[in-house]
Design a protein that fits this description.
Elements: H1 3-106
Keywords: Coiled coil
Coiled coil: 58-85
Protein name: Methyl-accepting transducer domain-containing protein
């Protein structure tokens, strides 16, 4: 074998070794990417779950507010009715007082 052939064999062997190293490094990077994708997927799933829970919480708050508004409107109607009834009692009391005063004027002996 000539020196030239030996040199080509050595260079070819070195090139094959470099290619093997690059393939191993590429495989290691691919494994890291796959692992990272799995972690990202888990984080996205957790974020989705938290988002769903937050939406449910806000839906509950909204329902509570709606119920409170309904209750406030019901109490407001009841208060309006009470104020009206008190006004009617006051008017009736005034009428009775005027009638009583007239009765006392007409028949002071009773």
């Amino acid at each position: 074998m000539t020196i030239e052939a030996e040199r080509l064999i050595e260079e070819t062997g070195a090139a094959v070794k470099q290619i093997e190293d690059l393939i191993q490094q590429s495989n290691a990077y691919a494994d890291e990417v796959i692992l990272s994708i799995g972690e990202v997927k888990q984080l996205v799933e957790r974020g989705q779950l938290q988002s769903d829970q937050t939406r449910e919480t806000f839906d509950g708050i909204l329902r509570t507010l709606e119920n409170s508004m309904d209750e406030i409107q019901r109490v407001e109607k009841e208060l309006d009715a009470l104020v009206k009834a008190i006004g009617e009692v006051g008017a009736t009391t005034s009428t009775v007082a005027v009638s009583a005063a007239k009765t006392n004027i007409v028949s002071p002996n009773y």
